[in-house]
Design goal:
heterodimer, A: 428 residues, alpha+beta, 12-stranded mixed beta sheet, 12 strands, elongated, B: 239 residues, alpha/beta, Rossmann fold, 10-stranded mixed beta sheet, 6 helices, 10 strands, 31% helix, disordered N terminus
């Protein structure tokens, strides 16, 4: 028997209200912790998606849009980079990596990225983590396609499967254009030659093929518009066909994990060319998170308000139980408990509710983050590692417990002031 | 949370109860109680009878130090309880006075054993002795289901648990407030027997207040509280 036993017995005597209040505290604490964890995990996840590219060149309206379209495949970029410009960029610097990409076609709403072999040999979807193939290999010939892990899982495409692409990002079944402005390149069938291992980046939800095949596809459209019906080959391509929508660049660097000193000067130099948009992907992700930070603070404030309201729930629950508690207090006083001891017993009771709620909240948060992570990987290919920052856990647990203790002050004072004689009288 | 019950003012000599010139009044013109003197020797038993509302329960609250008198002294075991303040008085009450109530006032949600242990928790009895003392008391009073919750027990069993709790800390004085009011005559007689036997065994003085005249046969010493207008006074031995 100890004072804590008395506290626990008192809580168990009001099982229902205790459970409800503990759950309320747990949800509030878990929510606050989840937001604190997600705000950093989200930024990390987006930074992860930028891979090892130092620079991204496109003709999008802004660097941020360029990164969202070029690396996260938010929308197909509208303005193409001409072949001559591409050559100019290539010659402008001794790049360690030069990977042109053309995004615009899709397969069952998954974006198709046309690129070169260097995309698999030099570009890393996640810094320090090169591509891995679950099956097959990178494309080597025209009309071969490599599919991301999520595409394989969701479409059921296997090695050797044939598919046709849709021009545009409209949702379509294979061979059938359903969306407005979308049409299907039925004349050219692609064969799956490789399936990529999951990377936890948006690339998991994309298909990859060679640039020349895409150029042939669109050259075919050009011939069709001109009324010439023929099977187009690489030999039919003209310079206007050879366009891309972006270029992933990497400067030579001794340390793969850090930006080389020449990056800033090269970035500034390229920005002077008003015809292109140059972005440092990691900077743009950080800029994006700086923009959403105010919303983030709002969410945090809302979660904190929920936590405060749960403290009020503790207060109300304890006030509501005062009538039954007064008799218990009176009995304890008769048995020799001092007023101060009664005060601390009641305060301990509210503190225990806060502590148990906080502990449960940490567990709820861990489970919730795990579930959210699985969902995000499945739905969007974004990996948000469910890391509970120990400092946040301690802060939220301490804050919740402190709030609960503060909520217990009024009931503790009421218990402290409970008149003993009056509350020992027979009931009724 | 301190559980210390040491008290340098504690006196172990003197009668179990010694009241002198006690005066108490509710508010300016409310109920008034005056008691010139009353002494109860250690181990003595006494029945205090009187009609409802004459101040019997108030007298017990004054003796237990739960309410303060206008004037006069109440000494338990030679210690003036009203001279003690705050926690010291609470500790003294827990250690020296056991109380049994009409509705027992047991802690619901707690087992019979735990009800006794809570009393011991508030005392200066060494923790090592708690279990043996509680078990011994409960078994001597015929309680076998020590882990049963008190609200699941019969009225008679609850009454025995209440007696065991009152005696848990080996008090100098046990105060019983209408201990038989909710019992039929046969059970009332049994309850009084249990209470008296237990107090005798523990060497505790017993002061029972009741409006039930049938209890008078059980006590050699009987006093009556009479209410006259607003004043109540002790009138000597009851017939």
């Amino acid at each position: 028997m100890s004072d804590l036993t008395i506290v626990l017995r008192s809580l168990l005597a009001r099982r229902f209200s205790t459970t409800v209040v503990v759950l309320l505290v747990a949800i509030s604490a878990g929510l606050l912790l989840a937001i604190l964890s997600l705000r950093t995990a989200g930024e990390r996840a987006f930074l992860r998606g930028t891979g090892n590219a130092h620079l991204l060149v496109s003709k999008d309206g802004s660097p941020l849009v360029s990164v969202l379209n070029g690396l996260f495949y938010a929308n197909p970029p509208k303005a193409p980079i001409a072949y001559a410009e591409l050559a100019q960029i290539r010659a402008s610097f001794p790049w360690a990596m030069f990977v042109p990409t053309a995004v615009g076609d899709s397969y069952r709403s998954f974006p198709v990225v046309a690129t070169t072999g260097e995309f698999f040999s030099k570009f890393e979807p996640v810094l320090g983590e090169p591509w891995r193939f679950t099956e097959g290999r990178a494309f080597e010939r025209n009309f071969e396609v490599v599919i991301g892990s999520s595409v394989a899982r969701e479409t059921g495409l296997r090695m050797g499967a044939e598919l046709v692409l849709t021009h545009g990002s409209g949702k379509s079944r294979e061979g059938t254009a359903e969306a407005e402005h979308a049409h299907v390149h039925e004349e050219y069938k692609y064969t799956v030659v490789g399936i990529l291992a999951p990377t936890g980046s948006p690339h998991d939800r994309a298909l990859f093929t060679d640039l020349e095949s895409t150029w042939i596809l669109h050259a075919h459209d050009r011939f069709e518009r001109e009324g010439k019906h023929k099977t187009v080959t690489a030999a039919d391509l003209v310079e206007d066909d050879r366009v891309v929508t972006g270029v992933l660049l990497r400067l030579p660097s001794r340390d793969p994990a850090s930006a080389p000193p020449a990056l800033v000067s090269q970035y500034d130099k390229m920005r002077r060319d008003g015809s292109i948009t140059v972005a440092i992907p990691s900077n743009e992700v950080q800029r994006l998170f700086a923009i959403v930070k105010s919303v983030d603070v709002l969410f945090l404030a809302m979660a904190a308000a929920t936590l405060v309201s749960s403290a009020f729930a503790i207060l109300l629950s304890m006030i509501n139980s005062m009538s039954e508690r007064r008799r218990q207090v009176a009995i304890l006083r008769v048995l020799g408990a001092s007023r101060a001891r009664i005060f601390w017993l009641v305060l301990t009771e509210s503190t225990v509710v806060g502590l148990v709620g906080a502990a449960l909240g940490v567990a709820v948060c861990a489970v919730g983050l795990f579930a959210a992570t699985q969902w995000l990987i499945g739905a969007h290919g974004i990996v948000i590692a469910p890391e509970l920052d120990p400092r946040s856990v301690v802060l939220v647990a301490m804050g919740t417990t402190l709030l609960a203790a503060i909520a217990g002050i009024v009931p503790s004072v009421l218990a402290y002031r409970t008149p003993v004689a009056r509350n020992l009288r027979p009931i009724g | 949370m301190s559980t210390s019950t040491s008290d340098s003012t504690a006196n172990t000599t003197g009668p179990a109860l010694e009241i002198a010139r006690l005066h108490f009044r509710y508010g300016e013109r409310g109920f008034e109680l005056q008691l010139p003197s009353l002494t109860l020797a250690r181990g003595e038993e006494m029945l205090l009878v009187g009609r409802s509302g004459c101040g019997k329960s108030t007298l017990l609250q004054l003796i237990a130090g739960l309410v303060d008198p206008m004037s006069g002294t109440v000494k338990v075991g030679g210690n003036d309880i009203h001279a003690l303040k705050g926690a010291a008085r609470d500790r003294f009450r827990g250690r020296s006075i056991g109380m049994v109530f009409q509705t027992f006032n047991l802690l619901h949600g707690f087992s019979a054993m735990e009800n006794i242990l809570v009393a011991l928790l508030m005392s200066d009895v060494p923790k090592a002795e708690w279990t043996a003392r509680a078990e011994g008391l409960l078994r001597s009073l015929g309680i076998e289901r020590l882990d049963a919750r008190v609200e699941e027990m019969s009225v008679g069993q609850q009454q025995r648990v209440a007696v065991a709790r009152a005696l848990a800390c080996s008090p100098t004085l046990v105060l019983a407030d209408e201990p038989t009011a909710s019992l039929d005559p046969e059970n009332a007689a049994n309850a009084v027997r249990v209470l008296r036997d237990a107090c005798r065994e523990q060497g505790a003085a017993l002061l029972v207040v009741s409006h039930d005249p049938s209890l008078e046969a059980h006590f050699a010493r009987r006093e009556r509280l009479e209410a006259a207008s607003t004043a109540t006074a002790l009138t000597g031995g009851a017939a």
